[in-house]
User: Fold Integron integrase from Pseudoxanthomonas mexicana.
Amino acid sequence: MEYQPKVGVVSEAGEDRVRGRLLEDVVRRLRVGHYSLRTERAYLGWIRRFILANGKRHPRELGATHVEAFLTGLAVEGHVAASTQNQALSAILFLYRDVLGMKLAWMDDVVRAKRPRRVPTVLSQTEVRTLLANMEGRMAVLARLLYGTGMRLMEGVRLRVKDVDFARNEITVREGKGGRDRRTVLPASLVPTLQAEVERVRVLHQCDLGRGAGEVWLPHALSRKYPKAARELGWQYVFPARNLSLDPHDGRWRRHHLDEAMLSRALKRAQLAAGINKPVTAHTLRHSFATHLIEAGYDIRTVQELLGHKDVATTQIYTHVLNRGAGAVLSPLDR
Assistant:
């Protein structure tokens, strides 16, 4: 005899439908808030894991003890980093506050994991030159750009043609961390190479337009305000992807920027070829940019503005390295 659920009890299929509608609401609220696609995927993943960890119960039925147990399990059993644990907490709080509209007393009492203060990995100028010498093609250009400007990885791959000012040797970084715009220096030695990249983009864009494509993603509602902007050269990415791709937001075919993982792999290969024993990532180039500027005598406020730090205390971590030992202390062994 086929099982029939009791009156008032939601069947498993019904639970799946409820959970599906809930996740659709999460996506809707994230897109209304202009969260990035990466954040959207991360939050959806954590919310799914939270629901599954609690027997597929609706989050309205759960409380502080369930959230704390979930986060504790991540730390104790999953051995995740503090930043990962905090991201999971942010996703759960977003679910309750922004999607379910629940403001519960326990939300203010949830303690975030304390992130350990790490000393950044910094390459010497010689190491940077050796690293870059072992790179080629667009990955070499992008790596030089990140080191020469202090831009973050995603700021580099999302750079638009219109935001490169060759006349002023200046780059405008749009919607950096915290949604803030800023300006940073364009290295004079990189100008000819970057001009060649822009010319490459122009030719590629003309080819795309010729076959009925040529559209790029625009932030917020600009596509409605300026219907033709998505096909203009100025809005194209300086580092475009090789192929067109389907935008998961609206299902339209566009040319996105290149996959940031390509640079990570290229840096790893260059690190091994250069014989550098330090771990090297795109952010290592940013750390090196800041440290080398301070070594050259630039004041901390200037470096803060170029990096886009909200608080100068964040920038001050780079004063730890001035080629004179920790804290500029002379070891008694050298006296």
